[in-house]
Design a protein that fits this description.
CATH architecture: 2-Layer Sandwich
Low-confidence stretches: none
Number of strands: 4
Number of helices: 3
Strand order of the largest sheet: 2-3-1-4
Order of helices and strands: EHEEHHE
Mean pLDDT: 96
Strand content: 25-35%
């Protein structure tokens, strides 16, 4: 049985680069949501810190997540993200309790 994969991606952008993160997310979000196995893909701003965001993701299986990571548009997005992000994203895998 496949367990749903839930992730929180913590993101920090460089000062003054907030809108670039928002634009980059919405440039690919429709494509991600159409992927087989994508159950959730949302960008949220961190209240009180305009340079921090989280992406909430849910995938139907580990295989769906792995396929997502190999999408050409995701590889290209990752290359562009370094231009406006303050550091690498922190990926947190969640499990049910």
């Amino acid at each position: 049985m496949n367990e749903i994969i839930s992730l929180i991606i913590n993101i920090e952008v460089k000062a003054g680069r907030r809108q670039e993160q928002i634009d980059a997310f919405y440039a690919i979000s429709a494509l991600v949501l159409e992927e087989t196995g994508c159950l959730q893909y949302e960008l949220k701003a961190v209240q009180g810190d305009e340079n921090k965001f989280v992406i909430l993701e849910k995938w139907s299986s580990k295989e769906a997540l792995l396929a997502h990571e190999q999408q050409e548009f995701m590889i290209e997005a990752d290359k562009k993200n370094v231009l406006f992000r303050a550091k690498g994203a922190e990926v947190i895998f969640l499990t049910s309790v």
